[in-house]
Write a structure and sequence with these properties.
Length: 157
């Protein structure tokens, strides 16, 4: 599989994690460790949970970081704009962030400028790092690490 195809599959899979409800075309749940989470400039890393959701719906890719108290911080961008800065370093431009509180609807999306970078999944450490800044200067960022495992024997061609 070409590197660009692997990246597209990975980004689609990671993007699918953040989409909730019936509108999700693809959703992926990653388990691991949240190394950092900043919401509107406030460090909430201690509350960050062990799951990252990546969703793809229509042309949007979403990365959702969840806190232990049920808050979800979403980084979203147009999946068609995804690029590879290096063969192993895909980049998803981000133009929207949103927050939701436990038991409530997703907050209004806020326009932002940023990106999510993630390493191509392979056996070992795989990380997803997102950062975005809103027009009023608020910073949102998160870093999540998961242990990628080797796939079971794939069919030969």
């Amino acid at each position: 599989m070409k590197a660009s195809s692997r990246i597209a599959c990975i980004c689609s899979a990671v993007a699918a994690l953040g989409v909730q409800g019936a509108s999700a075309q693809t959703a992926l749940k990653l388990e691991g460790a949240c190394e950092s989470l900043v919401v509107a400039g406030k460090d909430v890393s201690a509350q960050c949970g062990p799951v990252l959701t990546n969703g793809v719906a229509r042309n949007r890719t979403t990365f959702d970081f969840a806190t232990k108290d049920g808050q979800v911080i979403s980084f979203s961008g147009n999946g068609a704009q995804q690029e590879a800065t290096e063969e192993t370093d895909p980049l998803q431009p981000i133009n929207v962030v949103s927050e939701s509180k436990a038991g409530s609807d997703v907050g209004a999306p806020v326009l932002a400028i940023g990106a999510c970078r993630f390493s191509t999944p392979e056996p070992g450490r795989t990380s997803i790092a997102c950062e975005a800044k809103t027009a009023d200067g608020k910073i949102y960022s998160g870093t999540f690490v998961t242990a990628a495992k080797a796939a079971h024997a794939a069919p030969t061609r």
